[in-house]
Amino acid sequence: MAEEINISWINRKKFMKTFILLTILLVFFSTITFWYVNKIKGVLSYEEEMYLKEVSLQRSHAFSTKIKSRVEALNDLSVELMYDVSFDINKKVELLRGKKDKDNYIALGIADISGNYLGIGGRRLNISKEKGFKVAMSGKDYVSEPFLDKGRSLEVMTYYSPLIKDGKVVGVLTGAKDVESISKSLFTSFLNGNGHSFVINKKGDILFEDSKIYSILDLDKLRSSGTILKELGISSLQGKSVISGVKKISLERGDVHIAYTTIEGVNDWILVSVAPSSIVEKRAVDITKYNLIMYFTICIILFIFTIYIFVSKKRANKIYQKLAYTDYLTGISNYNGFVRDAEKNIAKKSGTWAMIYFDIGSFKVINDMFGHKYGDKLLKEIAKILKGMFGNETIYGRFSNDFFGILFKVPEEEDEPLVTDDISMYAELLGHIRDGQVFNPSYTNLKITHIVSEIEKKINSIKIEGQPHIDLLMAYGVCTTVSDKGISDDIKSVINMANMARITVKGSYQRRLAFFNEAIRQDLIDEQNIEKEIVRALENNEFQVYYQPKYELSTEGMVGAEALIRWIHPVKGLIRPDKFIPIAERTGFIIPIGRFVLRSVCESIKEWERKNYKLVPISVNFSRAEMYQSDFIDKAIETITENEVNPELIEIELTESAALNDVEFATNTIMGFKNFGVKVSIDDFGTGYSCLSYLKSMPIDILKIDRSFITDIEENDKGKNIVEAIIGLAKSLNLSVVSEGVETESQTNFLKKVGCDLVQGYAFNRPMPKDDFEDLMK
């Protein structure tokens, strides 16, 4: 088996999902960005257009005001002339002579109703056909379009004002002024010299224009009559009030923005402000460019970041694979790697497959005696043996602690014939050696036995420098499966079945190898059924608490009791605890069962208190699974407090294996109860592998000697010595001692002799229901 698991860091499907997700994000981000950019661009363009329009409005107003001021000045003069009731044109002209220079008129004169004009310079002509004369004769003011005065080489405008007497027009006052002063205000540039204005009449002819505009804008296209109006979309101004707007048009030198506004009260003239679109839209374009640069920058950063993530993920995946699928100590596959390799490499190959699950007996004792470094070296040596024995077609790994697994295809008989001593190996490993007994095992079982034997020989030949040689007691479980399509069962199920077989020989000196069979399978099915029934039993209150009294040897009086769980099945009747407690511990159902027992005990104590019974402490057992719950102490104290039970009436029992597995954690747990006032005892003492010296560092109150030391104590002198030593050790640590499983008078007498404090067992009383126990308390 290749030690490094060459697994692609990301499969095609996952890559496509990631790619699609990134594409969707990019499209979404692009859509939002372009929407935002266009929105901003539109807003800014609108603002610039409004600015251009506002410039046009302001200039239109200024132009209109200046024209009207000249018209009003001429009107004032006409009123002044009419103070004289006679209409002597010569006399009136004489009065005008002093006004010419004062008001900057180029020409000033009067025409009678026939259009005969007399200027202050003596010039005479008939103006009856001029539009301005006709309009003025109708009683309205009029301003002519600019024209060139050839005599003076000046561009001028003529203003017409009616002379009114007794409500009738009796003549027309005309005055001519140059347009330069108006042009100065009109042709002032804007937008940093890029924007200019001009005036057109209602036909679209340009009346006022700045020569500088041609160096910036190409207006030749607009000079022909009516072209501007067409470009602006204005067909006629007749009968319309003030109009204004902004239009973008295309010229040879580029697009321009044109803002137009009617000059109020001046012959339907229109003031036009024009600027290159590139200038008008410059801010919007600049911001758009900035946003696009930001967008592409973000896209590049996102792309680089994505590549970085993928590369980092690839690197991290390699590390993860090593952590997830490789055993950190030995370098071979761990459980996850074992399952993965099995499913990937051999699950589809036909043939007979064998799963070997094995461990080292009393490995915890080895660690305690020789240290964890020794134990680690031993595990590494076993891993080296597996590496050396098996090739790439075999999957092997360390599952946890001292548990190892091997999965291999059993070779065909013609490929690897058996050796002569395989049958004897088979018999020895399975503990079937009997005088005259004949075995006829299958080739598959014999071949597997041969491999197991080779593994065991190599493991027991391990030598660790500086340490004594140890003969290791191994336990092997085997599960075989045959299929023409590869492993027919789920690989984890195969592993579990091999482990179940291993458990049946665990700790046995005679049998070290077991093959999974239907009997073990049936036990497994029974356990699964019990597991399901435990759930129903919890829901239907089928569990009951029994009480086994504890007696003080010195007085033989009852001084306490142990609470024991019993399952009263509606069909099967009483189910022994050894049938369901181990299953409950493996599945976690022991936690609600334990809480049920403590709650029932507290409720019973409260009830007995109300009945004035003589109360005695009741001990409640808790398993390792319960002890390692984060809320174990809080839940227990909460139950005791809610039922208002004196903590001194509750005793917590922890098994030796649970308490001494992690001394520091157990010590903290014990102190949590002792600080509340609850006593703590170590149950089944002597069945674990921990050193007795651990007891001095643990703040327990009571030590319970396991029944296995008491059973044959009458005939076993070593057993007596061990019990006496345990009691002496407990006394030296100021601990009370309780012996379990006391069934005979001689056992009682011995325990009394060696100073045991309390006993419980059939010699005094069996576990009994609550009602029977109450009779003892009355």
Automatic annotation (TrEMBL):
<protein>
    <submittedName>
        <fullName>Diguanylate cyclase (GGDEF) domain-containing protein</fullName>
    </submittedName>
</protein>
<feature type="domain" description="EAL">
    <location>
        <begin position="527"/>
        <end position="778"/>
    </location>
</feature>
<feature type="transmembrane region" description="Helical">
    <location>
        <begin position="292"/>
        <end position="311"/>
    </location>
</feature>
<keyword id="KW-1133">Transmembrane helix</keyword>
<dbReference type="InterPro" id="IPR050706">
    <property type="entry name" value="Cyclic-di-GMP_PDE-like"/>
</dbReference>
<feature type="domain" description="GGDEF">
    <location>
        <begin position="351"/>
        <end position="475"/>
    </location>
</feature>
<dbReference type="InterPro" id="IPR035919">
    <property type="entry name" value="EAL_sf"/>
</dbReference>
<dbReference type="GO" id="GO:0071111">
    <property type="term" value="F:cyclic-guanylate-specific phosphodiesterase activity"/>
</dbReference>
<dbReference type="GO" id="GO:0005886">
    <property type="term" value="C:plasma membrane"/>
</dbReference>
<keyword id="KW-1003">Cell membrane</keyword>
<dbReference type="InterPro" id="IPR043128">
    <property type="entry name" value="Rev_trsase/Diguanyl_cyclase"/>
</dbReference>
<dbReference type="InterPro" id="IPR001633">
    <property type="entry name" value="EAL_dom"/>
</dbReference>
<feature type="transmembrane region" description="Helical">
    <location>
        <begin position="19"/>
        <end position="37"/>
    </location>
</feature>
<dbReference type="InterPro" id="IPR000160">
    <property type="entry name" value="GGDEF_dom"/>
</dbReference>
<dbReference type="Pfam" id="PF00563">
    <property type="entry name" value="EAL"/>
</dbReference>
<dbReference type="Pfam" id="PF00990">
    <property type="entry name" value="GGDEF"/>
</dbReference>
<dbReference type="InterPro" id="IPR029787">
    <property type="entry name" value="Nucleotide_cyclase"/>
</dbReference>
<keyword id="KW-0812">Transmembrane</keyword>
<keyword id="KW-0472">Membrane</keyword>
<dbReference type="Pfam" id="PF02743">
    <property type="entry name" value="dCache_1"/>
</dbReference>
<dbReference type="InterPro" id="IPR033479">
    <property type="entry name" value="dCache_1"/>
</dbReference>
